[in-house]
């Protein structure tokens, strides 16, 4: 491949804020199909790319896709950055940010696009589609990495990361600072508003998937809608934030228990036993599962030997 990756930053005006979208394409494939990528909690879009051409976003661009990586409100290069007193919640992501980004990507390509999400980004994507079903027809297919809505598994990693750090330490720190400075504390790649922490925590603990703002019943909505074809993937060593049992529980809530799924680990023929983060960042990814992700987005099949 003789050309090069081209990175451009686009900014969507949200009134009192701007959403950053990193557009990545390869100079040899300017007209390729579109993919919108959505990060999870205490993250930003950098989970999908870096300036050295690594990551799934960069890989997909080299495979011919037009890649659009969203930084949710206050994250990454979206502005203003999250700080003391900011109170935007999941409601803003579901009803403003994600619809805005999806409509914008759709206009750029005058047709359908696919989505890729990591962790809580997959929950946000599905919740957005359930609340705004007119957007479903815009989405060709989806791939979710380590996405779960609730956490029911119990093990030492869950007790430490979810119960202690997220459930007990984080609200104390957020209450003191007026937001969760996750990046400074080494808890994640980006910060979180205290209000959004409360929303995420409610969903993680709830048996029934109900919106904290207006009582919208996502499980009931899922029973009435046909959601886009989605491939659910998690790692063998993802013990708490995207455990395979919690991922499957999320699939069942969506009425997608029979959707394609993969557990990436050596016992299933992979090059590495992946965890919640290195499932997207490990050096082996581009020779291991990234080719299958690209093939799925192009064809709807997770088998490279399919016609």
Task: Produce the secondary structure layout.
Layout: E1 5-13, E2 18-26, E3 34-38, H1 56-62, E4 66-71, H2 90-109, E5 113-118, H3 120-131, E6 139-145, H4 156-177, H5 182-185, H6 194-205, H7 218-222, E7 229-235, H8 244-253, E8 261-264, H9 278-281, H10 290-299
Parallel strand pairs: 3-4, 3-5, 5-6, 6-7, 7-8
Antiparallel strand pairs: 1-2, 2-4
Helix pairs in contact: 2-3, 4-6
Give a structural overview.
- With 307 residues, the chain is of the alpha/beta class.
- It has a single domain, classed as Rossmann fold, CATH 3.40.50.
- The protein is 35% helix and 17% strand.
- Strands 1-2-4-3-5-6-7-8 form an 8-stranded mixed sheet, sandwiched between helices.
- The radius of gyration is 18 Å and the shape is globular.
- 44% of the residues are buried.
Concise summary:
The protein is of the alpha/beta class and 307 residues long. 35% of the residues lie in helices and 17% in strands. It has one domain: 3-Layer(aba) Sandwich (Rossmann fold).
Which percent bin holds the helix content?
25-40%
The number of distinct helices, counting runs of at least 4 residues, comes to: 10
Show unreliable segments. none
Strand order of the largest sheet: 1-2-4-3-5-6-7-8
Shape: globular
Question: Architecture, CATH level 2?
Answer: 3-Layer(aba) Sandwich
Order of helices and strands: EEEHEHEHEHHHHEHEHH
The Rg value, from CA coordinates, equals 18 Å
Q: How would you describe the oligomerization state of the chains in this entry?
A: single chain
CATH topology: Rossmann fold
When the domains are counted, the total is 1
